[in-house]
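Archive transcription. Copying these from loose printouts into the bound notebook so they stop getting lost. Printout 1 of 2:
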Amino acid sequence: MRSAVAAIPLIAVLAGCGSQTTDLPAYGVVPDFVLTDQTGKPFGSKDLAGKIWVADFVFTTCQGPCPRMSSQFRQLQQQVSADPSRVRFVSFTIDPVRDSPAVLADYGKKYGADPSRWVFLTGSQAELNKLSVGTFYAGRIDGSLTHSTRFALVDSEGRVRGFYDSSDPEKTKELVRDIGSLAGRSS
């Protein structure tokens, strides 16, 4: 089955958006954070400053929606290859007890993540929970391993600009269009 994400060539969208503006709502600003990436190094909001990014919340032992979500991220990553310095992908774990940097690195390899563009983050339950609940509305990180399956789009100024149901092909197409719109107006 062909994914809806693969159906829209984002390279063309990025190339044709030079002076567009966007009417996307702003749902708040991502607070400063520093977590640990899949290499064991600190990674945070400063590393994402000036970049458009898409966030999701997954865990590596998930037998439910996480593999599908990560496959969709891989497809998105491939589609924005025309300008990788402007668009990043960030997967936050909801299982920091089991998802160590090494485990996240293996998971990233399994899904073809380009580590220069797609990072996997872990950290304290409290810090991850602050982002999940207070910023991305993805649910509590409390050991229950329940979470939202939405993707969140963040603009180059750190504002959350949209939420997209990862299981809805039309919402995924909308995400692709909105990334292109933001990429066309970011500097």
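Printout 2 of 2:
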Amino acid sequence: MFSGVVEKIGIVTDIHFEEKNIYMTVYNPFEKSIKRGQSISHNGVCLTVLKKKKENYTVNAVLDSLYKSTLKTLKVCEKINLERSLQLGSEIGGHFVQGHVNYTESIESIETKNSSWLFKLRYDNFFSTIIEMGSVSINGISLTVVESKNFFFSVVVIPYTFEKSNFHLLRKGQKVNLEFDILGKYISHLIHTVCMT
């Protein structure tokens, strides 16, 4: 479980495939605080540390994670958002993020607005969980939906988040990882189940 507040930007140093799994080595900005078996969010995807050295660590992702996320398109030297899992007593700065990406979507537009940036994205699924002033995770970052209509939604990214994450590297048309609010998904599933019975 994560809060959607990026701690560090990591750099992918190696990628290789074994059968249908991907193994990814990332420069370790956390140094000694990382250990084997630890869960870390990588652009919003929860992955487990398999091996750790002082300067880097290795994780792997299975086919389902590759299918639903942008992990399959990552390249060496690419920068990714990192967040370590929450611990009891941790401050919840965003919202509860599982690290289970629902699917990817392309950025429709990026505009500057009052010294911040307005990102607009299309959505085709989970539409009932996208509500104005609700929460959504984009590349592992907890953001508030400012507008939602006609299968598009938008979020405002403040300067601090823009610079401290890989958002400043994103461009129009680029795909990002989306995870919708867990409470909204449960409510939507419950309503759908009741209506189908």
